[in-house]
Amino acid sequence: MSIDALEPKEVKSSGVDPEAEAVALNPQYNWDRAIPSFGAMNVDTEQRVDFRRMHDYRLARTRQALKNSDCGALLMLDPNNVRYLTSSKIGEWSRDKMTSFAMLPGDGDPILWDFGSAAYHHKLYMPWLQPDNCRAGNLGLRGTIPPHFGLMEYHAKEFAAILKENGVADAPVGVDLIEPAFQHELEKQGIKIVDGQQIMLEAREIKNADEIALLNRAAAMVDAVYHMISEELKPGVRENDIVAKANKLLYELGSDDVEAINAISGERCSPHPHNFSDRMIRPGDQAYFDVLQSYMGYRTCYYRTFNVGTATPAQHDAYKKAREWVDSAIQLIKPGVSTDKVAEVWPKAEEFGFPSELDAFGLQFGHGLGTSIHERPIISRLVSLENPMEIKEGMVFALETFCPATDGFSGARIEEEVVVTNDGCRLISLFPAEELPIAHRY
Fold first, then answer.
1. pLDDT digits (tens, 9 = 90+) for 297-345
2. For the chain, which domains are there?
3. 156-159 — which CB contacts under 8 Å span 24+ positions?
């Protein structure tokens, strides 16, 4: 199948200005075709994901979001934003070290600073960035190189010179993540720091055809994981055994980052602990799983619940309610609907055993998916009823529900990933979940 299934009508930059560029690359989808689920390789016999087109689209979206703000430049230390802007990654190793960073200075080209020799590698293998804009950088590895050594001061002065060169030295700089010591150095150079994460979240809201194809491929990998789990889930297997097998399978299928696998079973199901243990699976257990991983930078968040061998009426009832709640939300998803309308169909926190919406946050929940696990829109009774967001064509997000069972310890968790079309939405999480799956039925 060709990428024409979701082909943007215009794929070339106008080269005029950021606004015209963003408009030229804005996706107009053909929803009459199925969303492609490509193989892992690019081939000469089909048009699959066009990574350079995707890079141009993401850069145009970022330029437009920057233009919509009061900022003159963006400075990014969040690895998800760095990858979105520059199409670069040096591995999961860099996720918590704040050692790769990037800047978009006004109308200038993106500049990427990376760890040691990675910068030279980028010059050789990333021709979509200007060679002089691939630079070695180091902010101190989260304080392990003391600030008084001068690395932060060096880069702060470098940034100030870049801002001046690009004519935006007097405008605020949007920053997504920052260490206090580095912020102080930037302020010493007269740089005003404001929240840049909101600018990047605006840029990342709407996915183009290539991004949607990658998100669909990532979800297909999780389909395979759940088939494996349905075969492996039996008495004697531990939660961490399932986590290990899921990690192995995902990396074999091409994952570039398995962020986490939730594996929750038996008496651990309610309340939801959001982590796995070495608990051994037993007959009659209810068990649910979440797979958070990345394919070519695009993430999944996709729950499924199983029972082992048999299920009680209380477990069936919990699953039925969780399914009804997620289905009620899915039925509302279409462009122009506000997120408060979706959140309203979910139960109040007190109705399923929690004292407040903050205590229940994340259990009846919707969140955007892209280069990050949490993008726009966020859908929750905690935030959406008074601060709704508009659902737009081309958004991709997850909808997840949880229902505790009346036995006091079991619980059901279901999550579906949806792509917003011109008149509704389409599921890309396809492992069957309309009824409670029973693994190794007795």
1. 999 999 999 999 999 999 999 999 999 999 999 999 999 999 999 999 9
2. 3-204 (3.40.350.10), 209-439 (3.90.230.10)
3. 156/182, 156/185, 156/186, 156/188, 156/189, 156/191, 157/189, 159/75, 159/103, 159/186, 159/189, 159/191
